[in-house]
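#struct-pred

JT: dropping the chains for the assembly here, can someone run the whole complex?
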Amino acid sequence: MSTRFQAALDTVTRVRGVRGAMLVAGEDGLVVAEALMEGIRGNAVAALAASLAKRLRRASETAACGLPQFVHLQASHGSLLAAPAPSGMLLVVVAEADINVGLARLEMLHAGEAVA
Amino acid sequence: MTEDIRALSAELARDPGSLVFVALGEALRVRGQLEAAAKVAVAGLEHHPNLADGHHLYARIMADAGDVERAADEWSIALALDPRHAGAHKGLGFASFQRGDLDSALEHLELALAADPTDQSVVQALRLVRQAAEQAAAPGAADPTVPAVAERPPPFAGLEGADHGLLLVDPQGRVLAGGLHTPGGQDVAEEVAAYLAGVSQEAERSARLLELGEWRWIMAEGEQGHLHLSAPQAGALLLLARDRSVPSGRMAILAARAAEVARRWLEAQGL
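RK: done, full complex below.
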């Protein structure tokens, strides 16, 4: 894995409550790079997250809200966060319920810039 | 153990990364050895996580074991990896039919047939689903999934953005209530509703896969505006759209209020 990608993911996974982070090819949902806790099925999550992000992008652009810069799926025991990264990639983060979403968001945006 | 299974097992033992796991898993599945088939599929997917055929194999094993939900998850993954995968469309067609979602069943089976026009089982399944759809659409037949929206009063009256920034959608991407307009005044309700079809299921599958529990809401922060999605009750999706000036915390409050109104309205309609 590219050290640039790994370093960017490491920045995000250092945020307390982050269970893992992945760089995913936005169009086909394939994993480009990952730093995940054991037990997380990275490829499956990547495929579903990319598909979900694609639907949301179409809805958002049609509603004149523009390209989504940050997507937050909140569930009862945790969150799935996603932000666009350069070259059509998507940065996907799996987080605990009590994560500081603001901080994670900031680090995700920085990580996106770092892999540009 | 039959010869083919023995030969395939030997080949897989020689090369654990071999794609032969798909044939071996399928052979075991056909013989009803579901536990062994599942082990082969899971091990194979560890080597080939992006192989649509591998997820399709695992889906069929799960379906045979009676876990249709899990099977549908795997077929969804296969389709995300290969949107033209005939087997995955066929599987999701059967799964949709089983849960009474005829529109989705028709859509998937038609795509399966487009990908493989020679598959007679799909032709027969399509005939069956079309018959069921015609019966459901016959005069006097009640279709609980298609409410007569136009005859009902707008549920969000009194709420901020009731007719242009609040939209209630069914799982097939049809508008149930509310409205959505762009800042320029263009009505985009139907189009956005269509894009949102399946969002609820994908959110549910993602959350289940990650053991995150039940999904509650999704917020998409766009360049010009924000979208907030929630499920006021199973089988309905509520969209709240606002421009960027509305902070995400306020979006959450507005969405919670609208969800409560939507829930009461859906209950009153018997939906």
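JT: nice. Confidence is low (pLDDT under 50) at residues 142-153 of chain B. The longest strand of chain B covers residues 215-222.
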